[in-house]
């Protein structure tokens, strides 16, 4: 491709097909996107499409390694809750269009752009309006070569906590404030000199005068645009060959809603027609905890942080819980009964995990009806009717017989403290079904049974 052809190409900007292609983590739904990565797409502008489609929900936007030349206010105006904007390795020469994000934007990365000292003061003024901005990266820009670059930023941006990956100390900020007056004067002089130099360069280009090879730099906005367009042409040729085998999903909310409801209905029918069984179609990672919060089952399902909650459906039943995530069923049979109406489902704002808290059924004794008792074979709160106590052993799960004969007390108390040792021979049962126990008293107790002095003796200690 010749230089003339590359310069006359239509600038590439963000399209709806490109957004769908990069939103597979959200099932291709663009209106609920919270995170979007569009790096290395040879973009020259952001355009209006992105803000109109997902500007109300987008929180993280990654646009690094493109050739975007301007932060156009018309393109950024539609973003309402953007927290992190990455425009590293682009052709940005001035910071603009961000004042409406003063309550949301927390991190801005503009590493390796073309912000020079002539636009530095105005760019910092734009950043000063962002009261929630905590992390800023401007390394690799021409303005970063000025020795007063860091103290000037610290003096003008008191809300900043990290600059170019380095934490800002209190003493450093105080020193920056003390030298701000001289820094501002120095920056004004440098800006005028830079503007004059750039004006002369523009006149040289218009006049067609050859430049010295030592003055030409390959790292310039014009050179990057030319290389980007060449790469875009190669990518287009490659994609045209692969188009038959791959197409981004084109799914709207109405179609997905139908698929999601259909998956829920199929899960309900399977629960009505057959025995409830565990199922994990989406291979979701989860934990079921009953120890951290006594009296509760806490189910923690690992979901992507920026997965839209509209893709998740939760239904808690007394004996099982059903979750449909992106039309994939996760069903778990609970060890014991829970209070479905009192259960709570929440999404973690930090990790995106789905956490469902399900209180166990608290049982009380009722002598009129069948009493409920706990079985160690399940959890502490798992219960069964007291009538079943004759059918199952609470410890081993085997058949029980009615209690007959004496209680075995051998070994409960040490012999030295008056306990009973193991009997050497078996003693027949009496008519009452009781065994005669021979005892040996310790020395502190009178053991003379032949002489009856009429005094009452305490019973033997066991």
TrEMBL record:
* Primary localization class, coarse: other
Query: Which keywords accompany this UniProt record?
Result: Cell projection, Cilium, Cytoplasm, Leucine-rich repeat, Repeat
Q: Where in the cell is it found?
A: Cell projection, Cilium; Cytoplasm
Keyword Lyase in record:
no
Coiled-coil spans are none
Q: Which residues form the Dynein axonemal assembly factor 11-like CS domain?
A: 247-360
Q: Name the InterPro entries on file.
A: CS_DNAAF11_C, Leu-rich_rpt, LRR_dom_sf
Q: Which GO terms describe its cellular component?
A: cilium; cytoplasm
Region of interest (Disordered), ranges: 200-254
Compositionally biased region (Basic and acidic residues): 215-241
| Family to which the UniProt record says this protein belongs | Belongs to the tilB family.
Among PANTHER family, the record links this protein to: CILIA- AND FLAGELLA-ASSOCIATED PROTEIN 410-RELATED, LEUCINE RICH REPEAT PROTEIN
Name the UniProt record assigns to this protein: Dynein axonemal assembly factor 11-like CS domain-containing protein
């Amino acid at each position: 491709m010749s230089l003339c052809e590359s310069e006359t190409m239509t600038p590439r900007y963000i399209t709806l097909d490109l957004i769908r292609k990069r939103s597979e983590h959200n099932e291709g739904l663009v209106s609920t996107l919270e995170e979007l990565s569009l790096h290395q797409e040879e973009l020259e502008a952001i355009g209006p499409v992105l803000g109109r489609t997902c500007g109300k929900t987008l929180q993280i936007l990654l646009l690094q390694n493109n050739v975007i030349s301007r932060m156009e206010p018309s393109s950024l105006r539609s973003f309402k809750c953007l927290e992190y904007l990455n425009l590293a390795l682009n052709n940005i020469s001035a910071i603009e269009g961000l004042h409406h994000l003063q309550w949301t934007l927390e991190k801005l990365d503009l590493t390796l752009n073309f912000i020079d000292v002539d636009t530095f003061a105005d760019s910092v003024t734009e950043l000063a309006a962002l009261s929630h901005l905590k992390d800023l990266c401007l390394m690799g820009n021409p303005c970063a070569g000025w020795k007063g670059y860091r103290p000037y930023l610290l003096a003008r941006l008191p809300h900043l906590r990290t600059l170019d990956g380095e934490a800002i100390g209190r003493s450093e900020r105080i020193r920056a404030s003390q030298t701000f007056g001289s820094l501002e004067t120095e920056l004004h002089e440098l800006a005028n000199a830079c503007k004059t130099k750039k004006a002369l360069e523009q006149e040289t280009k218009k006049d067609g005068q050859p430049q010295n090879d030592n003055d030409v730099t390959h790292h310039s906005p014009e050179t990057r645009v030319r290389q980007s367009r060449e790469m875009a042409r190669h990518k287009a040729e490659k994609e045209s060959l692969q188009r038959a085998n791959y197409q981004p999903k084109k799914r709207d909310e109405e179609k997905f809603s139908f698929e999601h409801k259909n998956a829920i209905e199929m899960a309900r029918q399977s629960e009505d027609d057959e025995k409830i069984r565990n199922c994990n179609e989406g291979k979701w990672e989860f934990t079921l905890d009953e120890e951290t919060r006594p009296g509760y089952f806490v189910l923690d399902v690992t979901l992507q942080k920026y997965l839209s909650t509209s893709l998740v459906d939760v239904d808690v039943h007394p004996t099982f819980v059903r979750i449909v995530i992106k039309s994939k069923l996760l069903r778990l049979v609970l060890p014991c009964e829970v209070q479905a109406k009192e259960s709570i489902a929440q999404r973690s704002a930090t990790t995106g995990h789905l956490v469902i808290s399900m209180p166990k059924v608290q049982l009380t004794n009722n002598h009129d009806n069948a009493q409920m008792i706990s079985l160690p074979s399940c959890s502490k709160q798992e219960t069964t009717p007291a009538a079943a106590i004759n059918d199952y052993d609470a410890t081993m799960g085997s058949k029980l017989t009615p209690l007959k004969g004496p209680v075995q007390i051998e070994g409960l108390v040490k012999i030295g403290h008056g306990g009973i040792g193991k009997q050497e021979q078996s003693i027949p049962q009496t008519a009452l079904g009781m065994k005669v126990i021979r005892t040996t008293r310790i020395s502190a107790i009178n053991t003379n049974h032949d002489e009856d002095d009429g005094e009452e003796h305490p019973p033997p200690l066991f």
